C-alpha cells in the first residue's frame, strides 16, 4: 500500500489495516476527554454559581470544592498536554500530525478542500487517509492544540493571582495578567476559549461519527484499538474497485 509522505493519503492498493494510534496516544485522548469534561462543568459553575445555598458558606464550602476540582483537572489537563508534546517526539509518525501542518504540500492543501466538500455533502467519494485527513489535522492543530495551550496559559495566570504577587506562581505566570491588561481580560479570554474548544468538540464529534458511518475507514474504534481498518475497496490507482461495483 502506497501512502503519500505528507498528507498520508492512500495512493495505491492493495488496502490493508494500519496501526495508527499507539497506546500512549489513545490513553492521552480519553484522559483529555475526562479532564475537559470536568473543566467545562466546573467552569460553567464558576461562571454562573448556583444561587441556592442551604447552609453557611464557611460550613458547606461548596464553591471551594468546585474551584478545587477545576484546579485539579486543570493541572491534569496541562500535564497531559506536555505528555502529548513529548510523545510527538518519541512516537510514530502519526503522533506528530496534530503539531505539524504541511502547508508546503499541494496534495495536502487540496485535501483540505476535498474533505470539506465531503463533509458538506458536495463530494460523494473523498480520498482516504491513514492518519487524520487534512481538514481534521488542521482543526486539531489550530483549534485544539493552540486553543488548549492558550487556555492553559490563561488558566495558570488566573491561578497565580490566588497566591499573590510575592509567590513562585506569580513569578512564573504573573506576566499573563500584566501582558493582557488586567485580571478581568484574562478571565474573559479564558472563558471564551472554553467556547472555542467546545465548537471544536462539536465539529470533531460530527466528523468522527460521520466518517465512521459513511466513510471508508474506521474512526471511533481506531481510537480504542489503534488500528484503522478500511471497510471496502477504495477507488485509487492500483485498487480501482468502486464500492458500487463490489456490491454488484
TrEMBL record:
The chain crosses the membrane at residues 27-48, 60-86, 98-121, 141-160, 192-209. One of its GO terms (cellular component) is plasma membrane. Keywords: Cell membrane, Electron transport, Heme, Iron, Membrane, Metal-binding, Transmembrane, Transmembrane helix, Transport. Residues 20-226 form the Cytochrome b561 bacterial/Ni-hydrogenase domain. Coiled coil: none annotated. It holds the Pfam family Ni_hydr_CYTB. The keyword Ribosomal protein does not apply. It is a multi-pass membrane protein. GO terms for molecular function: electron transfer activity; heme binding; iron ion binding. Its main location: membrane. It is found in: Cell membrane. One of its GO terms (biological process) is respiratory electron transport chain. Belongs to the HupC/HyaC/HydC family. This is Ni/Fe-hydrogenase, b-type cytochrome subunit. The lineage of its organism: Bacteria, Pseudomonadati, Pseudomonadota, Betaproteobacteria, Burkholderiales.
